[in-house]
Design a protein that fits this description.
Elements lengths: L2 H10 L7 H14 L6 E5 L7 E5 L5 E9 L13 E3 L2 E3 L3 H20 L6 E6 L7 H9 L4 E7 L8 E6 L1 E10 L3 E2 L9 H15 L17 E9 L5 E2 L2 E10 L5 H11 L4 E7 L4 E2 L5 H14 L4 E5 L6 H4 L4 E5 L3 E2 L7 E3 H18 L5
Parallel strand pairs: 3-6, 3-7, 7-17, 8-16
Antiparallel strand pairs: 1-2, 2-6, 4-5, 5-19, 8-15, 8-17, 9-13, 9-14, 10-12, 11-13, 18-19
Helix pairs in contact: 1-3, 3-9, 5-6, 7-9
Length: 370
Amino acid sequence: MNVIELAQTLMKFRTETGNAEEIRKCLEYITNLFRDTGAKGGIFEYQGVSPVLFLHNGESSEYDVLCLGHLDVVPAADEMFTPYIRDGKLFGRGSLDMKSFAAVALNSLEHVLKNKLPIKFGVILSTDEEKGSKSTHAFMEAHPDLRAKIVLDNDVGGDILKIITKCKNPVFVKISAQGEAAHGSTPWDGVDANELLMQTLSNIRKIYPYYSKGGVQPQDQWIDTVHVAIMKGGEVSNIIAGEAEAVLDFRLTENSSVENLKKNLDRCMVPGVSYKISSESTPVVMDESNPHILDYKRFAEQILGQKIEFEHIGGATDSRAFAVRGSTVIMHSGSGEGMHAPGEYVEVDSVEKIADIQIRFLDKLAGKQS
């Protein structure tokens, strides 16, 4: 299987999150690729969410290795769905995030099947990761006994010389302010919900400071952060806002907890303002001395001819669904830039190298090499 050709083919499907027709075509294309290979599984569908593709080499609930990723992409101009290679870079929507690495996972599946490796292996590809991964949640709920000793997660694109060992816990909070509308010329006749909201946000900033490019930056970036994702209040310019709300995006390290966040938020609320935790998850934290991670790192360094460093990131990953079930999660991807941007690209050589690393790692687990 040529991973770059497959990546380009997958990129031509306009699988923007919610585009059910294109997602279906893409999933059917992949299942047809594996129709006569002995692969099991297929497309899994659940009420009200996007489908999930799960292909594997045998019926089981206990796997040695699972590759986890997604096939949906963020919206882009038409021309970004016509991928091209220039100067060793593959350009187009999904090149870095993450159809190239979906191709890598499928290449690994073909290798396991063709060589009849004595390991239990599978690939899980969701189709709504860019908008909350509800399909992954539904899939995991429908498979409560599904386990994997090792999960290969390539959805951390950016630098092939970094293996991610920590991801933060994303917690989304909705702040609601209830005021009393009045005419803008007589503010004393009302209660400005926007003011209440801003007072609350000011209190939150005393605990979770504001950081920005060109502004204040922390010396240690492995800290809890929050940004104001959405803020709105008021309908017209000459009326005191009766209601206002904001959505806050907290990123918590493993040293924090949602319960402690709630305690801090309780202290920050002013009269007329309340909050609700919209969603929460769990941080992914791997032991850097884990023998599987060290084996993988050794193969990667041999293939790349360079040292690889461990890194911590603030972003979240769907592999947390397996981390809480006891999996060793190996988070490693290729190099590129422009994720979600018009100039998105991945370095072709890095995709091929990730594919080689995975195959050597799987061969080692299967006892084919030391």
